Amino acid sequence: MVRCETGKIINPDSGRCVKKDGKIGKIIATKKLSKSPKKSVKKSPKKSVKKSVKKIPKKSVKKSVKKSPKKSVKKSQSGCTRQKTAKYNSLTRKSPPYPANKCQGKSLIGNDGNMYKSIPNINGIHTWRLKT
After folding, report:
1. Which residues of 14-33 are buried (b: 16+ CB within 10 A; e: fewer)?
2. 3-state secondary structure of 120
3. DSSP 8-state symbol, 71
4. What confidence tens digit (pLDDT) does each residue in 23-47 have?
5. What whole-number distance in Å separates Cα of residue 100 and Cα of residue 91?
6. Using alpha carbons only, what angle is made at residue 127 by residues 109 and 106, rounded to the nearest 5 degrees?
7. Domain definitions of the chain by residue range
């Protein structure tokens, strides 16, 4: 068992010695004072209950929860929607207020009134280019 210097106590989580006057030391001291007689009574029933309860629902809940949101997210992600942030609606931006990567191959009217087309560069990133 580790022994600490005077004015320090053992942190049960890390096994290190911490100052009694410090932030962690005060928390540990209050836990020991308030929970010392109740520890043996509370911990043993909770652990056995938690283990049996946790194992069964996790498997069944995870499968059903994971499948339903993925389907709805794919359907709702059209992507080519008008953006209302400052980046897309600034006075200096001439191209359309839509993300070019989400509107691949589409032609839209820009903030300046001209037609723009979403064209990929060498790396496959789409940008708005004036349609001539």
Report:
1. eeebbeeeeeebeebeeeee
2. strand
3. H
4. 988 888 888 777 655 444 444 555 5
5. 18
6. 45
7. 1-39, 86-130
